[in-house]
Amino acid sequence: MSKVLSGIRIADFTHVLSGPIATHFLCLMGADVIKIESPEGGDTMRNYGTDQSGMAPPFIAVNAGKRSIALDLKSEAGLESARRLLATCDVVVENFRPGVMDRLGLSHETCRKLNPNIIYCSISGYGQFGELRNNPAIDQIIQSTSGLMSLTGEPSTPPIRIGFPVVDTFTGLLAAFAIMSSLLRRERSGEGQYIDVAMFDAALVMMISILGPYLINGIKPEKQGNRGFSMSPTADTFPTKQGSITLGAVRQEQFERLCKAIGRPDLIADPRYADRKSRIENAGSLRESVIEGLASRTAEEWEPLLNAVSVAAGVVREIPDVAAQSHLTDRHLKLPVAFPGFSLEQVEVLNAGFLFAQDAPGIDRPPPRLGEHTEEIMRELDMPTV
Amino acid sequence: MSKVLSGIRIADFTHVLSGPIATHFLCLMGADVIKIESPEGGDTMRNYGTDQSGMAPPFIAVNAGKRSIALDLKSEAGLESARRLLATCDVVVENFRPGVMDRLGLSHETCRKLNPNIIYCSISGYGQFGELRNNPAIDQIIQSTSGLMSLTGEPSTPPIRIGFPVVDTFTGLLAAFAIMSSLLRRERSGEGQYIDVAMFDAALVMMISILGPYLINGIKPEKQGNRGFSMSPTADTFPTKQGSITLGAVRQEQFERLCKAIGRPDLIADPRYADRKSRIENAGSLRESVIEGLASRTAEEWEPLLNAVSVAAGVVREIPDVAAQSHLTDRHLKLPVAFPGFSLEQVEVLNAGFLFAQDAPGIDRPPPRLGEHTEEIMRELDMPTV
C-alpha cells in the first residue's frame, strides 16, 4: 500500500512549534496537511529574527511537505471556506490559546456538526480547563514551571534551561501519537475523538523516569552534573588532550578495563577505589587520576580504543560534526527536497527518526509559500476563488 | 468502544528504559503487554541501586499494567513457549544489542513465519546496520555523541548532560508512535511491518528545531544559557527575593510592562535600552537592573503579578512543588493503582499526558512480579506449565 496516512486530510490551524511539529510527523506518514494561515504574514515562524523572507530555516524544518491556504477567519467568506474545508478533513489540530477557536466559530462542537467523526486535537500550555489554562506558555516558561530546569547541572549551579525547545518537540510528538491512536480507533469504531494536549503535562511525562519514582518514594531528585544515575565517578564526562569524552564505566570489570586502557593499572589496587562505594567516596581524587590518564590522547582517539575493550565511551560532539556523519545518509535521516525558487534550489529536512521495511516515512515537497495552495484547495472544494 | 488497543497483544522483550517506555505508552492505550523475562532476575531495572526488591520505583513507573512471563530463552522449552506466545501476538518489541534476537532464534524472519502479519520493532543505540551498530549506547553516551550535550549551558561552560534520560524517553515515545502507525496500516492493509528505531536517530530528531535549520543554513548553533532564541536579555531566568523566575519579555510593549511592574519605569526611557538591538548590546547592565527590581518579592509572588500584566513569567519549580499541584489530579495525570502486598498498598503512576473525550488512556494494575503471569499465560496458550 502507499503510506499509512495517504488519503487522510488534516486541517492545521497551528503556528510556531509544538503544533507544526505534531503535523510534521503526520505529514511524514503521508497525510495531506493543510496549513490554514492568516493572509497577514501567516505562521509567525515564517519570519524569524532577521530573516523576514517568509521561509526562515526553522519554518522550513517543520513545514516541508505541507500545503497552505490563506484565509481571513474574521471575515464571513474566510470562515465559510474554512467550514467547507473542515467538512472534508479527518483531523483538526490547533494550538491557539484556550478559547480562541471558540471565538472564531471553529470549536470542537461546530466542527463535529460539519463532520461527525472528526478527530479534533487542541494543544496548549496548560490544557483547556483549570486555573492555569490562561497562563502564558512558551517552551522556556514550561521548562521552569514543570521542574525540568531544576534537574540539569551541578548540585551547586543555578537552574539551567535545556538549550533547545525540547518541550515543544516532545509535546508535538505526543500529540501526533494521540492523533494516530485516534485514527486507528476511528478505523475500528467509526468514531471521532477530542484530544486535549498540554505542554506542561507533556513535560511531566517526559520526566517519567524522575517524576514516576518521586510519586512512589517521595525522595526529592537532586541535580548530579554529568554523572549518570549510578553516581559512579567513572560514568561521567572528562576532558582529554582535545575534546571531551563521556565514559560509562560502572561495574568493577569496566572500571578495571578503563584503568588498564588509560595506562593507570595502579588505580585498580588502590584501596581508595576498591569497590563502587569507596570510589564514590573518593570521587574527587579518582576523577583527577582519570583526567591525567586521558590527557595523552584526544577524545576522537579514545572513543574506538575504549569501546574496543568494552568500556562505553562517546565523544562529546558538536552539531556540525554530528551532521557530517555518513550515518545520517545511510539511515535516511535526511530527506532531500527540491525547492525551486528558493536560494538553495534544494534543502534537506529531517525524517521521522525510524525506518520501516515497507512504505517508509518521508516527504518530497518544499514548504508552502503563504497561501500557495489557496486556489488549488478552493477548486477541490468547488468554491469560487476570491 | 473500549480502549483503542484492547485486544492487541504485545510480546515485550525489552529491558531498562527506552523499550519499556515504548510499551508503557501502548499499555496505557489498552494493549495486553507481556514482558518476557529471564528467570534469573528479569528486567535489570527491577533492581536499582540499593533497592534489590525487584520492585524498584523506576521499574514500577514504566511497567505498571503489564504482565510477566519468565522464560529461559536459552532452553528449548523456553524458546518453544516463546514461539507459541509469538504466534498469538500482534507486535514484538525488543531492545537487545543488534544480533541478539537472531542468536536467540527470534529474528524478524522467524517471527514472521510464526505470524505473517506481525509488527516487529527493534530499538537499539545506533540502529540495526551500519558501522556504529555495535557501539555501546546508554542515554549518557548518546547525549554526548548526538550533539545534545553541546547545546545546553552558558557559552563558556563545559558540555552539560540533560539531567535525566531524555533520549530513552523520546526514543520510547517515537517507537510507540511508529508501532501505532503500523497497527493502523495493518488495520487498513492487513500487512505487518518491520521497524528499526535508534536512540541516536531519535536524539537527532528531538533536536529538529536546531539540527533542521543547521541542515539548511550551516550556521553552527551556540549555547546561550537561559536566554531564549530571541536573545532578548529580558527573556531569561532571574533570581528574586526567594527562588528564580523565568521571564519572556521580548517585544517592546512587553519590555515596558515589565519595567513598570518591577518599579523601574526609568529603564524605558534609558537610551541604552531603547530597542531590541540596543538591549541586547547592553544586556549586562539591563540584567542587573532587572535583578534589583525583582529583589523586592519572591518568585511565587511575582508570577501572578507579571502574568496579570501580560508579561510571561514562570517560577522555576522543583519536583516536589510541581508534583503537589492539584493540576496533576484535575488533568488525570496520576493513575492510582492498587498494589496488594507492596509496602504502599497503592501507588500512583503517570498517565499518557493527553486527555481523550472517549476511552481515556490509563491502567489499573500494578507492575507484575517476575513471572507472575507465567502459569496464566501458559494456560492461555494451552501449554503445560512447567
TrEMBL record, chains A, B:
Segments traversing the membrane: 162-184, 196-216
Top-level taxon of the source organism: Bacteria
Cited InterPro entries: CoA-transferase_III_domain, CoA-Trfase_fam_III, CoA-Trfase_III_dom3_sf, CoA-Trfase_III_dom_1_sf
Keywords, in A-Z order: Membrane, Transferase, Transmembrane, Transmembrane helix
Record flagged with keyword Transmembrane helix: yes
Molecular function per GO: CoA-transferase activity
Pfam family, one: CoA_transf_3
Protein name per the record: Crotonobetainyl-CoA:carnitine CoA-transferase CaiB
